[in-house]
Amino acid sequence: MTCRQIGVNPACSRTKGARSGISLRSVGFSWCFSFEVSISLVKNVILLDSEGKRVAVKYFSDDWPGLSAKLAFEKSIFTKTHRTGARSEAEIGLLDGYIVVYKFISDLHFYVTGGEDENEIIVATVLQGFFDAVSLLLRNNVDKKNILENFDLVLLCLDEIVDGGIILETDANVIASRVAMRGANDDVPLSEQTISQALATAKEHFARSLLK
Amino acid sequence: MASLPPALKKDDDIDDDSEYSPFYGIEKSAVLQEARCFNDRELDARRCAQVITKLLYLINQGETFTKNEATDVFFATTKLFQSKDIGLRRMVYLMIKEISPSSDEVIIVTSSLMKDMNSKTDLYRANAIRVLCRITDGGLLGQIERYLKQAVVDKNPVVSSAALVSGIHLLQSNPEIVKRWSNEVQEAVQSKAPLVQFHGLALLHQIRQNDRLALSKLVSGLSRGTVRSPLAQCLLIRYTCQVISELGPNSQTGDRPFFDFLESCLRHKADMVIFEAARAITEMSGVTSRELTPAITVLQLFLSSSKPVLRFAAVRTLNKVAQTQPLAVANCNIDMESLISDQNRSIATLAITTLLKTGNESGVDRLMKQITNFMSDIADEYKIVVVEAIRSLCLKFPQKYRSLMNFLSNILREEGGFEYKKAIVDSILILIREIPDAKESGLSHLCEFIEDCEFTYLSTQILHLLGNEGPKTSDPSKYIRYVYNRVILENATVRASAVSALAKFGAVVEGLRPRILILLRRCLYDNDDEVRDRATLYLSLLSDEPDAAQDDAKAFLFQDLDVPLENLEKSLELYEPSERPFDLAAVPKDTKPRHQTEKKAPTSKEKKAAKDASKKSAEGGASNTFEAYEKLLNSIPMFAGFGKLFKSSAPVALTEEETEYAVNVVKHVYPGHVVLQFNCTNTIAEHLLENVNVAMDLIEGEDFNQVATNPLASMPCGVTGQAFVAFEKPEGACSLGKFSSTLRFYVKEVDPSTGDADEDGYEDEYQLEDLEITAADYILKAGVSNFRNAWESLDSESERVDEYSLGTRESLQDAVQAVTTILGMQVCEATDVVPSNARSHTCLLAGRFLGDTQVLVRLSVGIDSQKQVAMKLAVRSEDPSVSDIIHEIINS
């Protein structure tokens, strides 16, 4: 069946040279695309705790005007996702009409939201960048206590990942080194630890968790 | 409160939290006090950074600052530029962005930020650019433009990106300035740093998006070159699609420009690029299967990925493709089926609904078995999506109603919230209405459901339906047990509606009446007033000897109200208690909303689903209005001898909207007569029209003889009234004609303030548009559940086949639409939708001709390269002469 169709259809497209709807459709298209690009690619980045309470958030769009709308959205995505096991791989869903990609670690829930027509994989890349950068900066001790104690780093991290909705950087190493202002000055406390050191700590941490 | 155990537990939790959180017990006023340290002569950088973090934490938690507080904090923060501490400087940047100072305050930090913009440290420069562009206004931009332009081509990617991203933001407010950077941005697009390329491309596109030629050049240049960043590649794919959709396919070869580029992106190493390209191909307008195949293949690979995000992206895209091209997706069915058990329920639901769209009739049963296992462990909102998909599947394959109905009734018995149950009940109600065969089994499923239903709203809705439909079934008595059980077991609202339903059985089915009376008598001792009142009322109506007044009351109670409820509600609200009783006949019978949906239907062709829905509602409404019309006409003595009403058309407007008098006509067809019902509305408050009559003249056709008129006595402003004209025509014939008509009436001036009419008036007339009696008026839409069987069962001797040329048409869809409109028949098996690039198509139509003769039509159309449409029409009917009439209709 499919084979026959393949044979038939090229001819079809020929006959459709001057489609009537084309001008109308293309207007819709170009508008839609310029819209998509001029407005943010990422709607928000949200970090919640194990009870769904806000730890750190950053909104880049006006889709949720006012605090109550934002909190309602956070509550909604939390209740819809917190039972899923998004621990090893990032999970995804179309929640309240938005693409939401999420990943959990210990008592923390990371979310990144994109528009309904956004490329899901791009949104997931942003989440991964945020997640990994935070892990690097906190030397793999990612939990609520550590996040709050290093709240400045988390905020800087968010600042380096997305600017006004436009993705600034997705490579966790680059993000982490920019947050630490590595290379800005030689005597910055956090720059004492290079990425390879951080990775070494991570390995050690991992090994210990295996031994337990 | 603390004494209660749960509250105590909560307190414990908070104690635990306080150990973790450095922000425990944080208060705005205290932090603002602490912020005074910003003014210290000897700055403690560490402490200042901590205070800023606390302030930012408060903002992050949703705390807001008053204007004065914000100003104070801002001024204090600007002092911190004195410190050389890097960590502190970063926090200062963040703080300034969060506070977003007003334009007269910006000036204070400008010089500090400009100094940072020229610093040796790249990260300072990048951040200073971002902050400055965020808070700056047009005037200041002129001063810093030179630096920004330089920054765009800076060798450090972080600086370059910062300038480009800021440029994208600034383009909204100051396009003329950013457009001057074109050359620099173009250089940035060629950068070796991936993200710079991405930001450069985004900005360049924004600058040039209104220049088609430049855009086309940009795309053709880059699609040949190498784009390093996957993100930039995704953007390029989007822009390419934009160019493709504007250019259209090459008229000579039929190839799309740049399609090769899209196809090559399917072999890119980054998943996001592969997916972007695949999705772009599926979304191209008029995509062919040859173009689709490679895209579907890569999406199919994603389906078995270990990453949920990839599976979700692929299944969502395939689901969209399945809406228009189910066959193209059918290849993925095996992978889809394995996704039914996916851990991620969004993926599983999308897989199910895709399968329901692509599946063929034979696969339905197997699919239903799989879904049954799946339904138990998903959330209600997903279940609703599945129920809706099953409903549309059932309407697509009506002969599968048995297994689908069983499925619906099974899930109806399981646990679920109100919205979910309502979706199921609504689906069953729709199936009962659309598929006549499914009625009895549907009703008995619903009966079982109300035996154990916790939702009053659903119980009453079902009881009402049982009261209407139950008595018309072959064995009405079996429903009585279910209905009476409600009287014994339920709350007052349900009991009351059960009593009404019982009474309807008693009224319609003569044989059951004594038993119903016994049951109703038992209800007289109910606890609730409403239930007792209803029982008393119905008892007296059903048990007493019939007389005229009682007949009226019966008709009123047991038949549907012939006025729309919302109109009745409006009229009752307007009614003021007075000597004059409320007149039900004065309630307008026009339903405005329905007219709107009917008008909307053809325009929203693009959104197929929406169209289907509105059509359904219009058709559903039609069956109700038909009964209402029938009753209305039967109430007029002069039409009583015409026999059984065959068909009533939809109202046709004979005047423009918003004119003095709005008139529409409904054509009622009887075997030997045609009655025209003119619904007239007077919109002039100063006029009262009396003795409203419609004068008709036959322009074309000779079969019609006017036999009766029924004028409208009085027509005050805003109230719709009906005038009737009846014509005689040869019995059973399909007589066509065209009439001119004029509204004649007697006008009396009315004083709008008092509402009193003058004694004297004058005669006047108002020209209406011509009206036609067409063949479609003699054909009733009547679907068959299995077209093939119905077709085979009709005598092949009655088949008449002929070929026609329909001339040049825009598309096949156009041609099919035109023919189905002329014939006014029911489309079967959703064959009225022509796939977007098909060259030929067969549409199945069913209907009943005047005299209740079944007619089936197979309509095959084909289109050639010159857009000439040829049509083959095969008609079978219970009466061969009717087949001929159908051909005559097409011929004329």
From TrEMBL, chain A:
Organism: Physcomitrium patens
Protein name according to UniProt: Coatomer subunit zeta
Similarity comment text for this entry: Belongs to the adaptor complexes small subunit family.
Cell compartment(s), UniProt: Cytoplasm; Golgi apparatus membrane; Cytoplasmic vesicle, COPI-coated vesicle membrane
The entry's keywords: Cytoplasm, Cytoplasmic vesicle, ER-Golgi transport, Golgi apparatus, Membrane, Protein transport, Transport
PANTHER family noted in UniProt: COATOMER SUBUNIT ZETA, ZETA-COAT PROTEIN
GO cellular component: COPI vesicle coat; Golgi membrane
Pfam families: Clat_adaptor_s (PF01217)
Function: The coatomer is a cytosolic protein complex that binds to dilysine motifs and reversibly associates with Golgi non-clathrin-coated vesicles, which further mediate biosynthetic protein transport from the ER, via the Golgi up to the trans Golgi network. Coatomer complex is required for budding from Golgi membranes, and is essential for the retrograde Golgi-to-ER transport of dilysine-tagged proteins. The zeta subunit may be involved in regulating the coat assembly and, hence, the rate of biosynthetic protein transport due to its association-dissociation properties with the coatomer complex.
Record membrane topology: Peripheral membrane protein
A GO biological process held by the record: intracellular protein transport
Domain of life: Eukaryota
Subunit structure, as described in the record: Oligomeric complex that consists of at least the alpha, beta, beta', gamma, delta, epsilon and zeta subunits.
UniProt gene name: LOC112289380
Domain AP complex mu/sigma subunit residues, every copy: 42-183
